[in-house]
Write a structure and sequence with these properties.
This protein has about 250 residues and is mainly α. The chain has a single domain, classed as Rhopdopsin 7-helix transmembrane proteins. Helices cover about 85% and strands about 0% of the residues. Helix 2 (about 35-60) runs antiparallel to helix 3. The longest helix has about 35 residues, at about 130-165.
Length: about 250
């Protein structure tokens, strides 16, 4: 089970870094802020930050491990902050409460990461047993879960809008499908984060217990496939969408 989870999460890490680099390279020449935000989010958080935290926790040399762990936490906060503001900018442009929600999420995440880092500096791998570190981890996972829930809601909302436009001949099947896949990806990650948060809240260990490990593994493999279809769709898939626009527009 744990080997399967490791492979799935590793696959998601590689795909996230690949997509992140591609988005940044494509966006920088034209200064497209949404693509830069999303590319940076994928590159820094799942692409670099998360694996650095995992590896840093496992390194036998404590100083090097702590440096990598701390750097990973900083990258996770930076990447997730970009993700929060991507949601606000793309889905709710000019809406004050959306910007406020993104800022609040970033602040809560930074506070939680600081407490997790403090525990790691004090106790190393055993810090997860501290009530404050466990609470900080629950907070981080809950904030991330809510952000992905926001993503899922906006994806389904925009997919519904595209279906309405299609009824009068204005729908774009490729764009509509991306909204749908984006919503599915957000839903999957939302469930995974909340399962892990619930496990911690109940006194479990999300790195060992079957429920959170399985949820993390399935989210990793599922979202790896979705990243390909959203950002690097095969030509055959795009041709299918264009031939079958109603299938592309249909909600899950």
């Amino acid at each position: 089970m744990h080997l399967f989870a490791f492979v799935c999460v590793g696959l998601y890490t590689v795909m996230s870094a690949t997509v992140g680099v591609r988005l940044i390279k494509r966006a920088i020449p034209n200064r497209h802020v949404p693509e830069i935000l999303m590319g940076t989010a994928y590159l820094l958080a799942p692409g670099l930050g998360y694996p650095m935290v995992v590896i840093g926790s496992a390194l036998p040399e404590r100083t090097a491990g702590l440096l990598m762990f701390c750097a990973g936490q900083v990258l996770i906060v930076m990447g997730c902050t970009c993700f929060f503001f991507f949601n606000a900018r793309v889905f709710r442009p000019g809406v004050v409460y959306a910007q406020a929600a993104a800022a609040l999420g970033a602040i809560l995440l930074a506070i939680a990461a600081s407490e997790i880092t403090r525990g790691q500096l004090a106790l190393g791998a055993g810090s997860i047993g501290l009530a404050s570190v466990s609470a900080a981890s629950v907070t981080m996972l809950t904030v991330l879960g809510l952000a992905y829930g926001w993503t899922a809601y906006e994806g389904f909302r925009h997919n519904r809008m595209m279906r309405r436009r299609a009824a009068v001949g204005l729908g774009d099947s490729v764009v509509a499908n991306r909204f749908l896949l984006w919503a599915i990806a957000g839903s999957v990650q939302f469930v995974s984060d909340l399962v892990a948060a619930h496990s911690l809240q109940m006194g479990g260990n999300m790195t060992v217990d079957v429920g959170p490990v399985l949820a993390t593994a399935l989210a990793g493999v599922c979202n790896s496939a979705l990243l390909v279809l959203i950002f690097m769709p095969p030509a055959r898939y795009v041709r299918w969408l264009l031939r079958d626009p109603q299938g592309a527009l249909a909600p899950s």
